Amino acid sequence: MLLLAVAFIVAFVLLLYMVSPLISPKPLKLPGAHVVVTGGSSGIGKCIAIECYKQGAFITLIARDENKLLQTKKEIEKYCVNDKQVVLCISVDVSKDYEQVENVLKQAQEKLGPVDMLVNCAGTSVTGKFEDIEVNSFERLMAVNYLGSVYPSRAVIATMKERRMGRIVFVSSQAGQLGLFGYTAYSPTKFALRGLAEALQMEVKPYNVYVTVAYPPDTDTPGFAEESKTKPLETKLISETSSVCQAEQVARVIVKDAVQGNFNSSVGSDGYMLSILTSGMSPVTSITEGLQQVVCMGIFRIVGLFYLGSFDSIVRRCMMQREKSESADKTE
Ligand SMILES: NC(=O)c1ccc[n+]([C@@H]2O[C@H](COP(=O)([O-])OP(=O)(O)OC[C@H]3O[C@@H](n4cnc5c(N)ncnc54)[C@H](OP(=O)(O)O)[C@@H]3O)[C@@H](O)[C@H]2O)c1
Ligand SMILES: *[C@@H]1O[C@H](CO)[C@@H](O)[C@H](O)[C@H]1NC(C)=O
């Protein structure tokens, strides 16, 4: 009986492996490809641009600050692998006006050819308690992090479908997989990217266009340093339960997953656990990936509950300490 069950499982897995080439995308060839990186002048975006440039791609960097763009262009050009390679800089706000974004992308495509890979990495963050965050910050974050990813993607998707090839990358965050203290303005913008990515992937998969959602952990970047200045104590203590990653490492993983056409891209053991736990109804790009999700989900939920418990106790401890010091102030 047991033998029969084992034989059945083995046969099933073999069958899955036989059909797996049907669902696995063909890798994108980076040499000579045109890669557009929004937010390419700093942090993770800059490292993604460098990583692609090192592999022979032509790069378009998009951000607002022209000086920062030019400085980054020089930095990237040091990694040149052939003398035809170009780094193009475009200064535009990706969140303001769709027509403008469409226009600059048209110009970039006239110079460097159709976009093979678009990396939506422009983003920003505000942390604080819900009631302390300015109402316009909620609007601004949604505009930059969400609409700022919709506009460039909307501008390149038709050509990608026509050419029957392409990659779109959305840089979400681990805060786009779970909501944490202090992230009431930021998390929803990153969750939104996941919904967009799932729906878009179903539309474009038959056209051989693949979508990747990256969920970076805390990463050492200028943006992260800026955010850390105003983080509530609770958010800091919760963040400290995992370590800070290097932008180069995060970028390498994102580029690798995008080239392979993987839907999910995560870094580290926390990232691995979160991507399994939140796989839900997201598309699967290999049988191994699907099997890992099926096998690990229950166990990881138990581990996750311990994390949640410890986060809750951090928040409660901070509240009690705050109230104690407030009442001490009053009696003085
Ligand atoms: N660092 C982390 O810990 C972390 C963790 C998870 C996810 N992420 C996400 O990863 C992405 C990059 O983060 P990072 O830390 O590398 O950021 P960063 O160092 O602050 O760089 C942000 C980049 O986006 C550009 N940008 C910002 N607003 C823009 C706009 N409205 N239009 C065009 N460009 C804009 C910035 O250039 P200008 O200011 O000149 O426009 C800059 O090039 C973000 O989406 C962030 O949410 C970061
Ligand atoms: C998500 O992507 C990472 C690599 O970026 C991989 O190691 C992991 O297995 C993936 N997780 C799931 C659930 O597919």
TrEMBL record:
Pathway given in the UniProt record: Sphingolipid metabolism; Lipid metabolism; sphingolipid metabolism
EC number of this enzyme: 1.1.1.102
UniProtKB keywords: Endoplasmic reticulum, Lipid metabolism, NADP, Oxidoreductase, Sphingolipid metabolism
Main localization (coarse): endoplasmic reticulum
Superkingdom as given in the UniProt entry: Eukaryota
Gene Ontology MF annotations: 3-dehydrosphinganine reductase activity
Keyword Cell inner membrane set for record: no
InterPro entries: KDSR-like, KR_dom, NAD(P)-bd_dom_sf, SDR_fam
Protein name: 3-dehydrosphinganine reductase
Classification lineage: Eukaryota, Metazoa, Chordata, Craniata, Vertebrata
